[in-house]
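Section: protein folds

Sequence with per-residue C-alpha cells
===
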Amino acid sequence: MTVTLDVDGAVATVTVNRPEKLNALDYATIDRLTATLGRIENDNAIGAVILTGAGDRAFSAGADIGDLAASIAGGTDRALREIVRRGQGLTRRIEEFPKPVIAAVNGLAYGGGCELTEAAHLAVASERATFAKPEIALGFPPPFGGSQRLPRHIGRKRGLEMILTGDPIDAARAAELGIVNRVVPHDDLQTAAGELARRIIRHAPTAVRACLAAVTRGINVPIDEGLAVEAAWFAVTVPTEGVADGLRRFLTRSRPSAPSS
C-alpha cells in the first residue's frame, strides 16, 4: 500500500509509503490520501492526525513526474483536471480538515511535499529535513496551492524567493520562516509530533474544530469578515458539552482561602 494508516489511541498516523520513489505523490497515492482522510473524519475515536513519509530520506519529493508528464502531454484541460484539481483538492482537504493535521517532516519536502506541509495545521521537522519549491525548473508555478499558501504564511517576498529560485532551505530556516513549528532531533520526530497531538486532543473536540475552522477561514479574509467568522464559530460552541464542562471545571476548582481578618 502506498498509504498506510496506524491508530494509537486517539491519534492516527498516515504515512506516504513509497520510500523507493522518495514518497513521490502519484495520482493513486493522492487519491488514497484523500480517501484515508475521509475514513479518519468519520471515526469519532480519532482526534488528531500525524502525516509523514516512510523511510529516513523523504517526507515527499512532490508530484510523481511520470504522471505529471503524461497529463501535460495530454493537453491543458487534462493537465488541469488531473494535476491541479487533484493536488489542490488534497491540500484543501488537509487545510480544512476538522481535526488537527500535524506534518512530521522526516526528510526532504519538495514541491508537493512542501505544499502538504503548508496545508497542514501544524508541522514538526527533523533536523535532516529540507524544503524547496522546484516547480519553476520544470517551467510552471506550484500547482497544489503552494503559490498561494506559502506567501500568505511567510510573506510575499520570502515566499517569492523560494518559488522563483527553487533553492532548498534547511529545517532551521523553515522554522525561522514559520513553515514548521519546531525542529527536533531526527530520532525524536514521531515522539514530538505525538506529544503535540496529545496536547491538543486533551481539549474538547468541538472547541478544537471551531478553532481550526475560525483560523483557517478567517486568515484569508479581511479582518471584519474574520471577526464575523470567529463569532459564528463561537456561537456553534456555546451550547456544547465542551463549554459546559470547561466552565464547570474552572468554577469548581480549589481556590486559595481568603485571609482571616
Q: What stands out?
A: Residues 255-261 have pLDDT under 50 and may be disordered. Residues 76-95 form the longest helix (20 residues). The chain is about 50% helix and 15% strand. The first strand starts at residue 3 and ends at 8.
